[in-house]
Amino acid sequence: MARVAQLHDNVDKTRYYPLRRETIIGRAADVTIFFDNKRVSRRHAKIAAPAGTDAYYIEDICTRGVYVNFKRVKGRHPLQAGDRICILQFRNIHPLDLERMTDRDLKECCDDPRNAGVKAIVDLTFQYADVEAAASPEDEERKGLLDKLKSLFGKG
């Protein structure tokens, strides 16, 4: 089994994004994960894992902000399975009021569909998935040959 890091889209619940060693989120044509929304920067955030590890981090590479578990990311932030990654849109909220909000307040505002002041325009969950390693063509050829031999000798 291989362990693969991925993002689950909490808005489109059927969409998963497998992560590369370096993944860019944004709305530019050349990004890894594309979101067609003007509030998302062309190159908004980077998710990466240093060579030789599977420990991912997220980095805000724009000025609009990225939130992990409803706390704004400053610099590189290590990711843990289950972390919620959001790009938020704010309407009619004074910056001082925003600074006073706890991460719990921000989450409640964001998750309440009646609240138009804070909205998650990108809402993803970081997770790991165990997947079966793909068999190589040589493995398939060996299996086919073994099956033929078993059928010839009546052991299949």
Summed up:
With about 160 residues, the protein is an alpha+beta fold.
Structural account:
- This protein is of the alpha+beta class and 156 residues long.
- 20% of the residues lie in helices and 35% in strands.
- The protein is built from 3 helices and 11 strands.
- The strands form 2 sheets. It has a 6-stranded antiparallel sheet with strand order 2-1-11-10-7-8.
- β5 (45-48) and β6 form a beta hairpin.
- It is elongated.
- The chain starts with a strand and ends with a helix.
- The mean pLDDT is 86.
Give the helix/strand layout:
Blueprint: E1 2-9, E2 16-18, E3 22-26, E4 33-34, E5 45-48, E6 57-60, E7 67-68, E8 71-72, E9 76-78, E10 84-90, H1 95-100, H2 103-111, E11 118-131, H3 137-152
Parallel strand pairs: 3-4
Antiparallel strand pairs: 1-2, 1-11, 3-5, 5-6, 6-9, 7-8, 7-10, 10-11
Key words describing this protein structure:
156 residues, Tumour Suppressor Smad4, 6-stranded antiparallel sheet, 5-stranded mixed sheet, 3 helices, elongated
